[in-house]
## 1
Amino acid sequence: MAAANSHFLDIRGCSGHLRMHQHSGRWLLSEASSHSLARTSLFNIQSKMSFKGLLKDEDVAAAVQAFAAADSFNHTQFFAKAGLTGKSDDDLKKAFYLVDQDKSGFIEEEELKLFLQTFSAGARALTDKETKAFLKAGDVDGDGMIGVDEFVTLVKA
Ligand SMILES: [Ca+2]
């Protein structure tokens, strides 16, 4: 990836272009182009790779396609169509950490809004109405976020 005599590392992916530089032995983000970068680009690249082992591409595509219209999203039907329903707790936890893009341990409202995009980069964002309904369904303890156990419970419900 990085040339031996270079202290820069260029990462190119479908989500844009990131440039990292080495500072005191640590890699830091020095610049990025296209899209709003920051928290999503790098993790989106990982997500797409990781969902492959977990779910079938055609199931994910069909699930995303089924809710292409604004305000049509239904999480129970989505989980079923994508093949998440019936997965083991461990697999559901893997899925959770892909949706938890900033690895905070919680799916915050902002990440929930981008839920479909985690599965398919070209998918739409959820509307505010859908996001709030989704959050309300999963947020059992009422902290405004969905934790890993809440996610597993929601998918299996
Ligand atoms: Ca998070």
## 2
Amino acid sequence: MSFYSALGLDVSYFAALWHTFNVGHMLATDLDRICRHHGLSIADFNLLGALGIDRPRRLRPTDLAATLRVSQAALSARLLRLERNRLLVRSPATRDRRASFLHLTPEGVRLVKAIPSSATQHLSVNSRSVRLTSREMNTQLREAEATFRDVTPKEIEHYREQGWVKLKAFVPEAQVASLLAIAKAKMGEAGDRNAPPQAFSYFNPLTMRGLEHPVLGPVIKHCGHNARALLARKAPVGIRYFTDFFAAKLPSAKPALHGGNGSSDWHQDYAASASDRSGGMVFWLALTDLAPESGTMAFLSGSHRFGPMGHYTTYGEGNLLDAYPELLDHCAVTEPQSYEAGDATVHSNLCVHSAGLNRTCGPRWTYMVIVNPADACWNGGPADAFDTTGLRLHEVMDDGRFPVIG
Ligand SMILES: O=C(O)CCC(=O)C(=O)O
């Protein structure tokens, strides 16, 4: 304040202005949290809401950009994504065939109505918030921004049906920023400073075993808690932690020091899990915004129903689909996914998946957590992601290294 008054500005209204700004910020954070439960950001909701208003004339993308006060470039990517998610469609404008009008789909209309009604139930900002001191406001904001969200019934259903699921904003921004900073501090900005004990062609891993770590621990436990909901066993079976690691897929155009700049061809993880039963899953968390050209995950939806189909090293120069081409008659291949920082995908260790080359010029930063059902027993085999020393055949893997976390 004294800085501004020294400039000769009238600062008598600054405190009120700052307070109003903070209440607005709290409200936006709170609304964003609610939108994310429905798989949208607050900006997506504003966009759909603008299309939901009854107007004499439908909006074109240029009208919408002006209404929302955003650039055409920022709007185009968002429109494409919402169109792909079947929340809006375009129809050609009658006078100018090159232009298009935007319309909500029935699902878009449903969301535009559902979000305000869930806001009335779940909004934590209320009339009392306006009277909070700035210290109380900061505490509330920090808590709101750091809140982990749970998987929704719709996401659980998608996982059960398809063997994988996308979890928008699964880890809050603050934690993702800390994870990325830790990864870069240990692996370097280029993601290749560490030398893994076992180098992989498809990414450069750094195993963390971070359960006790102040930043990694809560993220791992968040995965464990939600893995239990995704597993959806009727028997009261918990979730056992197995490993967690940073994985930097390195640019394919540059030579790599320890591998890690290749693609991850179609495969399942099950054969590398050393477990006597299915139910294991991988949480794959994007630490930055990731577009398909950085080598993101694609899935063969529903392939988890077809049982184990071999270890990824057993197809010679080919991949799982060369050995089981008939899968393509039954299962749809998804596009490589796009992620915003904090989005995750989770795949069952029986779901066939792949990730392409990283065609960008920087590393693809991800953090992965691998879990199994707590009643899984060691099948006597080796495991790719963890050490099986000390495990006993046909007994649960309750070695102290693998605690139940969900
Ligand atoms: O991140 C990748 O490139 C592949 C990941 C993968 O195959 C897995 O998580 O099982």
## 3
Amino acid sequence: MRGRGFVFGCFFDANISVFKICIFFQKSSILLSKVRSMRKEYIYIGILIIAIVAVVWGIVGLLNTAYKTEEAKTIHPVEEIYENENTVTTAMEEEKVSPNAEFALKKYYDECSHFQYEEAELPKELVNLNEQEVEDYYEDWEVEKFSADQVVLGKEINGYCNEHFIIRLDDDTIHVYQLGTSGELKEYQSTDIARDYLPEEDIEDLEEGITVYGEGKLSSVLEDFE
Ligand SMILES: [Zn+2]
């Protein structure tokens, strides 16, 4: 019997079915070895691809580094110019408050959208400070304008400004009330303009209260009643 059946180590009689099994095993083993050799080939191909990629990567990397070094060399003088410009700009940013600078506070009132601008004496502590230092000095205020000659600080205030007045008839004479920051009324001025000398129409308005904005307007309205 073709001894091939025994190649795989089948020590059985030449029984056909056993023989077939042996052939099957033999074929399988050939196939398996083929697969193995194919695997090996794949592994070699794989290693080769990785090697090629690594070499190409290395070359690209080297070229890139070389290019960057070259670029750095060419750009360097330009950077030096920029550096000089920056020094000049920084010197300008480093502007400091002069001892005779103007100083003002700007308050924004969010209830009435008015703002109040008050000039004040420059606090001595601000002299020779730069913008950032002034900003840091005041926790609640923002630096709105800054130069050696002028510092303006701004702040938002929750409420009404102090320019809202109500003119009203109380105890038969005209009184002026001021609207407080949170909307409360406080007596601002009492006059000797008496109810008896006012026309009926004005009395009605004054009993309800006339709202006036600004001290200038307040004086002119009061004059009309005198
Ligand atoms: Zn206001």
## 4
Amino acid sequence: MRDWQADFPTPRGASTGAILELGCGPGRFSRYLATRVAAGGGRVEALDKDPAMIARARQDFGAVANLTFLRGDALDVARPDGAYDLVVAASLLNLVAAPARLIAEMCRLVRPGGGLAVLIPTPHFDAQQADRLVRRLRLAGFSAAALAAWARSAPSMAPTEARRLFAEAGLTDIHVHRYLDGAIAGLSGVMPGCGTPPL
Ligand SMILES: C[S@@+](CC[C@H](N)C(=O)[O-])C[C@H]1O[C@@H](n2cnc3c(N)ncnc32)[C@H](O)[C@@H]1O
């Protein structure tokens, strides 16, 4: 999992970086992002619609100074237009019933010149692929069980479909990265307009 975390774009310099993570779940990735931008004064807001997830995230990572957890709907976020330098969603685009609406809301929330990044399980990510990865990466215990459970339960999305959604939303500089033998794809794009690109 480290590859895609390390590749995830963060605002250049991150000195004033405001990042929003949608569908943050238990907040482990939110914590990673917050740690990564802390030195530059960047801050992360992480949102999930499930109150139990937010409660758990606050319990585990509530002490991280530059990280705030919010309960809300990723399709209708109570924040002004252009409030963030970077909006990210890991394993959410593939879940929502209206992915184009999610991308539209992410675009509304990011400033001109800011960035969007998503992570999706691809159609390659099935039980056999998870088994192979568990063996190759020598995963055990919780990590192995979590990967297998994710492969069983996650609806997938083809990277070409996600790329099409990014392009139709008018994003530029679209990049597709593949991780874990193609089981996971990460996409990034830039919101056109003036401003320093975050990527
Ligand atoms: C598969 S989990 C991913 C969690 C986390 N991003 C990660 O990668 O570990 C998907 C999360 O999205 C949340 N979610 C689903 N639909 C949502 C929505 N419309 N608004 C906000 N959160 C949503 C779920 O509650 C769940 O916590």
